[in-house]
Write a structure and sequence with these properties.
This protein is α/β, with parallel strands linked by helices. It has one domain: Metal-dependent hydrolases (TIM Barrel), CATH 3.20.20. 42% of the residues lie in helices and 12% in strands. It is built from 13 helices and 9 strands. Strand 4, helix 6 and strand 5 form a beta-alpha-beta unit. The protein is globular and about 50 Å long. The two termini are 35 Å apart.
Length: 332
């Protein structure tokens, strides 16, 4: 890398809005598979992310998703609590990662050369059907909730669920309570109708933690230009993902350059102050195409942004500055 690009990356606050590495920590594979657990405190050769590689890649803050796959939905609250307990154990074992609750925690981690870890939940099944479940997770440090995964739940309809419909009345109550508590509302995986309903009731910044542009890659998980504009109008952001299926339909054409095509388009639609990063590391398969091989390669993205003509301050905004604005606005 060019020295000036690496220097900029090392000096910047870098925030990744989504990874599924907690599954690796417990050995929960997708589609009900059980795998050998992977200690995230130790540098590994499997998967996309762990604490040593995140620090090597210059990441300052990482949102770790507590995700419930289809096979665990009936036991989603308890399943999520097991993942939460595993992360709490990781925090107790490693002095290189800390639970983050606010913007100050990110800045302190940056100053000390550590990693700030935000906890998020991917799929509202985890809270059951009462606001008390949401409050209990907030009290344990969870600061972001993706209202749905692809399926339908008590909060609303996900992007892959059959039929029609958006947010439920309970889903609207959840959004209001999250805004009262100070939790980030995550719109990724919502159906188009549910996202429309969310934008109609949101009073605080909304994020799409790992979504790309539907104009560049026509996929139900990507956002239309009006949807991206609606998210930006809340003061939120669209965090772009490296998941190959959402970058390009053809795996062989997935690349860092193609990923930047999505970023360029969204910048042209909503401005550079409303885009960020949400890698989805450990949440997709490399067979669908690779943007970066793992989190240690984040500096390559900084150099590529500079090569695309983005000014240094714009690069800082994309890498983490925009996420920091949302974190300050919502979490404090």
């Amino acid at each position: 890398m060019r020295p000036e690009a690496l220097a900029l990356h090392r000096d910047a606050v870098v925030v990744d809005g989504h990874c599924d590495s907690v599954l690796e920590l417990l050995g929960f594979g997708f589609d009900g598979r059980v795998e050998e657990p992977r200690d995230l405190a130790v540098r590994g050769s499997r998967g996309h992310a762990d604490i040593p590689r995140l620090l090597e890649g210059g990441v300052t803050a990482q949102f770790f998703a507590l995700f419930t796959d289809d096979g665990y939905v009936r036991d989603a609250p308890a399943h999520t609590l097991r993942m939460l307990a595993a992360m709490e154990d990781l925090f107790s074992r490693s002095d290189r990662v800390r639970l983050a609750l606010s913007a100050r925690d990110v800045l302190e981690a940056k100053a000390q050369g550590g990693l700030a870890a935000f906890l998020g939940i991917e799929g509202g099944e985890a809270i059951g059907e009462s606001l008390s479940g949401l409050r209990d997770f907030y009290d344990r440090g969870v600061r972001l909730l993706g209202l749905t995964w692809n399926r339908r739940n008590a909060l609303g309809r996900g992007a892959a669920a059959e039929g029609s419909g958006g947010l439920t009345d309970f889903g609207r109550r959840v959004v209001a309570e999250m805004e009262r508590l100070g939790m980030i509302v995550d719109a990724s995986h919502l159906s188009d109708e549910a996202l429309q309903d969310l934008l109609a009731v949101a009073r605080r910044p909304v994020v799409a933690s790992h979504s790309n542009s539907r104009a560049v890659r026509d996929h139900r998980r990507n956002l239309t230009d009006p949807q991206a504009e609606g998210i930006a109008d809340t003061g939120g952001l669209v965090a772009l993902t490296f998941a190959g299926s959402f970058v390009d339909e053809v795996p062989d054409t997935v690349s860092l350059s193609r990923f930047l095509d999505h970023l360029d388009h969204l910048v042209s639609v909503i401005g550079v102050d409303h885009v960020g990063l949400g890698s989805d590391f450990d949440g997709y398969q490399d067979k669908n195409g690779i943007v970066l091989k793992d989190c240690s390669e984040f500096p390559r993205l900084t150099e590529a942004l500079l090569d695309r003509g983005y000014a240094p301050e714009e690069v800082r905004a994309v890498l983490g500055g925009n996420w920091m604005r949302v974190i300050r606005d919502v979490l404090g």
